[in-house]
Amino acid sequence: MEKRVTFSRWSIGILFAVPQLLLIFTFFYWPAGQAVYWSLTLQQPWGGGNIWVGLDNFRSILANADYWNSITASLVFAACSTGLAMVIALVLAALTDRQLAGSRLYRVVLIWPYGIAAPALAMAFRFILAPEAGFMAVVNQVWPGFWDPGLDGTDAMASIIAAFSWKYVGYNFIFFLAAFQAIPRSLIEAAAMDGSGVLRRFWDIQFPLITPTIFFLLVINITESFQDSFGIVDIMTAGGPANSTNLMVYKIYSDGFKGLDYSGAAAQSIILMLLIIVLTIFQFRFIERRVHYR
Amino acid sequence: MASITIRDVRKSYAKMQVVHGVNLDIASGEFVVILGPSGCGKSTLLRMIAGLEEISGGTIAIDGKVVNTLEPRERGCAMVFQNYALYPHMSVAQNIGYSLKVAGVPVAERAQRIQAVARILELEHLLDRKPMALSGGQRQRVAMGRAMIREPKVFLFDEPLSNLDAKLRVQMRSEIRKLHRRLSATSVFVTHDQVEAMTLADRLVVMNGGRVEQVGTPAEVYSRPASRFVATFVGAPAMNMLEGEVTLDGLSLLGGSRKLNVSRAGLPVGSKIAVGIRPEAVRLVAPGTPGALDATVDLVEELGAGRVIYVDLDGAAFSVVTSETAHPAPGSAVGLQFSEADLHFFSSETGSRLDVFKASMPVPAL
């Protein structure tokens, strides 16, 4: 039996939980509650009270084609960047797991991108992907006009996906490598004795056994791609060209603080929150079933 | 069914050599046990046969065909691992049938063969369970089934019983023996447990420090150990060893306090030797009996069926196994008697067995 600490009086237990509850309340429930309240009112841009408008904010947002465009862009960004970051990390980790010399170095080096602030990282990528001077300038030399994120929405989207994926590849790699290493060596050897080749072993043994990690990273990556993309978008594209990279999180900022539509921004953040909640529930309900926990 | 020929096989990791030129012939259908202490290279040797470790030097041939560069799956070996290595996400049936699935055997035939193996191992009612829900003995049987279903040429066992409790180990031991009689496939079994080794082996290979010390039937290894290491490693309690030196008129033991009148048989005076005697070969007699060594009882270990009596012989520890219920109390004096035929002689320098004494003449009483 697992030993549990028990308190003779429930009040002592509550006392221990209070600091944490206080933090969560102050930094999550209270702001979220405020956002819900604002989203149901119309705020004066220059202060001076608000009026209750019910669901009008939501109606006007959802009736706006720009907003639907933003949702689409966010979903495309989430799917592509999560897919790219996870697949690259998975391949790197699988290769590293097979040949372990220097893996300590990889571990340190690959976690660094995750520690870089998004604006700094975006600045670097802006230079790297600049059509006139960067790495892509070489490609443009061969096919003139092939790459220009300043004019072409698809190129801009590809740029922010590349920057975001780069940041998360290292993060995912660490988790994948740890998961691979947690698989007992003898399982792989047993599969080898059973006649299974390298790729077959990967699909039949390693992949099913790291599904808990894959699932965890899927949830984290998707959630983060909705939220952590702000700095990258702001520096690299500022939502352009022609709103093609105006992700939901960026649109909240620009509508709220640049357009001074506080109520509309509050409503958008409620929608974003609901979308992430729904996506996460969906993942737990439908994808987690295929996860093998040991 | 296959023979295994191992020629001058070596294994080194970076600069460390762990297996130093092993030669071994395993006949078709034979059950060979490799016995040795931890780190003696026995598992490494087994894994080289399996193809899980690269061979640094020498050759391993299965059925006359050198397999050094072959992948594990091409060698026709099946292996039972120490920790069972069952696939945790697959059911028992999937675990057993995995090799057939990889080989592309049709589902119907696969199911039929899984059933057949499960019947032999009495696993039929467990086929749908996951390994997590099995006991240690059942997991062990699944691991055996996974090896059996392929009808391999060679079975390799890497200390498969060491994770089981004592009772289950005895039971599985006899099951493995029965299974071998039934399938009579060539088997190589690695263990550090000498009881397992003695009971299972047709032939025993004793390894130490990356070298083969002796190859022989369990009875041969027990009665004529080829080296001091084998003598003390095989048999429990371990064989008693008395250090001695060759003198002009025979042997001086224990720093000169005891004499043994044997001919030198060509050994130079002053060569150091060790005299071994099994605890089971010593009789306890009254102190002062002519021809017996006088000693003091240190400790008595009760084993139920017998007793191990540890005595002090001029400062050297010495053990005696007796089946008599009446035994001397600690601190009392006893005489130790044994026949010359039970003595083993080993060179102190090389540790190898010296047969010169026994061959040349009867040994007079000590």
Task: Please give a structural write-up.
Chain A: It is a multi-pass membrane protein. Chain A: Keywords: Cell inner membrane, Cell membrane, Membrane, Transmembrane, Transmembrane helix, Transport. The complex is a heterodimer of chains A (294) and B (366). Chain A is mainly alpha-helical and 294 residues long. Chain A has a single domain (64-290), classed as MetI-like fold (Orthogonal Bundle), CATH 1.10.3720. Chain A has helices at 10-39, 56-62, 65-98, 103-115, 118-128, 135-142, 153-182, 185-193, 198-209, 211-227, 230-236, 248-258, 262-287, and strands at 41-43, 50-52. In chain A, helix 7 (153-182) runs antiparallel to helix 10 and helix 8 (185-193) packs across helix 9. The mean pLDDT of chain A is 88. Chain B has helices at residues 42-50, 92-103, 107-121, 136-148, 166-183, 194-200, 218-223, 228-233, 356-360; strands spanning 4-13, 16-26, 31-35, 57-62, 65-66, 77-80, 154-158, 186-191, 203-208, 211-216, 240-247, 250-253, 258-260, 272-277, 283-285, 293-302, 307-313, 316-322, 333-337, 344-347. Chain B has a six-stranded mixed sheet, sandwiched between helices. In chain B, strands 13-12-11-14-20 form a five-stranded antiparallel sheet. In chain B, strands 15-19-16-17-18 form a five-stranded antiparallel sheet, with no helix packed on it. With 366 residues, chain B is α+β, with helices and mostly antiparallel strands. In chain B, helix 3 (107-121) crosses helix 4. The model of chain B is unreliable at 359-366 (pLDDT under 50). Classes of the chains: A mainly alpha (294), B alpha+beta (366). At the A-B interface, helix 8 and helix 9 of A face strand 6 and helix 2 of B.
User: What number of structural domains do the residues of chain A give?
Assistant: 1
Number of strands of chain B: 20
- DSSP E strands of chain A, number: 2
| Average pLDDT figure of chain B | 86
Oligomer: heterodimer
How many helix segments of chain A? 13
